[in-house]
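Give me the 3D structure for Cytosolic purine 5'-nucleotidase.
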Amino acid sequence: MRYHEVMANGTSEYSPVMTNGSSYGKGDRYTAAPNEIFVNRSLHLENVKFYGFDMDYTLAEYKSPQYETLGFNLTKERLVHKGYPEEILEFEYDPSFPVRGLWFDTLYGNLLKVDAYGNILVCVHGFEFLKHSQVYELYPNKFLTLDESRVYVLNTLFNLPETYLIACLIDFFTNSPQYTRVKNGVRCGDLAMSFNSIFQDVRSAVDYVHIHGDLKKKTIENLDLYLKKDERLPMFLARIRESGAKVFILTNSDYNFTDKIMNYLFDFPHGAKAGEPHRNWRTYFDWIVVDAKKPLFFGEGTTLRQVDTRTGALKMGHHVGPLHEGLVYSGGSCDVFTELISAKGKDVLYVGDHIFGDILKSKKIGGWRTFLIVPELVQELHVWTDKCQLFAQLQNLDIQLGDMYKDLDSSTKEKPDISKLRASIRDVTHKMDLAYGMLGSLFRSGSRQTFFSSQSTVAHEQRFTVDTPTIDRSRLVNAVGRVPANIAEVTSLESDSALDLNNDLKCRTYDPRPRVGSRTLTTRTVPTTRTSNMPTSKPTA
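Predicted structure for Cytosolic purine 5'-nucleotidase (541 residues):
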């Protein structure tokens, strides 16, 4: 299996990361190791006795953008069925726009990229990137509290098509001549639609598609189209068990869907090794839990019941005895599950893609060690290496900037003229920013860490090489290595917020509508300072 970009957690509050060592190009610093793991704190693998895995986007890696496109199209169809104009069917999913970790402000209809404290870094209304002055009108302090009654966090990979559809709808209704824009929504005669009601309709449509709609059906009918497959997966899980550890799968998916997906992933003529007979996927796990309802599983949980694997139906009553290998269970809670498998919190390393449902909740409530899947690191590292010349330019500009100030003290009356340097820095960082995509890096906006990054605490210089994560369980995971000098702070001279640097630099408009014939992006440069999206953090011991 392609053990894509991941994060694992040793003793820190959050989570470590493992990558598959994807090839980026000749001479790339990241191709030296076949596998890479990014860690926050030290982790003794000999202390881990239980390895748990989510299924969706973890063991089962969906193909992008094919899978997101499927969800996007089905959600559009559901909205039209519920009364939305058929024109929205003309929109096509564009994977270059959405990014995880955005906040949607249901009051004003804005997608917000924020830092760890709610300070607004980028503000987008539909496909219009708002200027600094426009943001100030809506958010006087350029700050928004994470209020669940107003803000929805689009944290998961499943949220990507939803994010793009929200932007499409806001853009459509805001710019349609049939509708009049009001502060909190749009009007068409006596019909008023708030941005919150549009969002609730999208949420309802997404839930319907995932629970009652055709998403799972079409996925199962076209597994080759939507799912990646790796013959190393059986060997990977078998080696973990050979090392003496226990393995379990804990997924929110129902048994029937889980069984179809896992049967496909393990559909090889051999078993864990070439020459061994084929085995049912359930034999690779000590325990199997479906319908977990995370993050509720890590709190009060639900009733633990046994699943009839012949029909997929739940058996009568709740399960009270020990958990048996080969059987499938539904629901339960972290406390009950941990007690039944005789595990302590720190004995468990759980691997998942959902930073809140899988990682934060399991860490804070269950005390589990955590391992976060971050597939976006492929693009992040690609930009990091592919644009190394731009990073080198920024480093040189940083040195020049320092040289201009190094001989000055508090008695200096005249400031050096840094306008040309600022213009050069602005030009270079603008090119870097667009290399990440429409909304920039998942982890940074200028010199600020994004909300997503603050939750995962990824440090690009913290990595180590492993051949196979289960062969040597006594390996001590330490953060080693170092990136070039910190040049993300080279231009923080006159601005008190990253918003000044990001929104005022590029006042962008984006047209996703295929009926126009093409997607366009116009960029206008506004004089201001700018910082790099280069991943930075202080090296740790």
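The longest strand covers residues 120-125. Let me know if you want a second pass.
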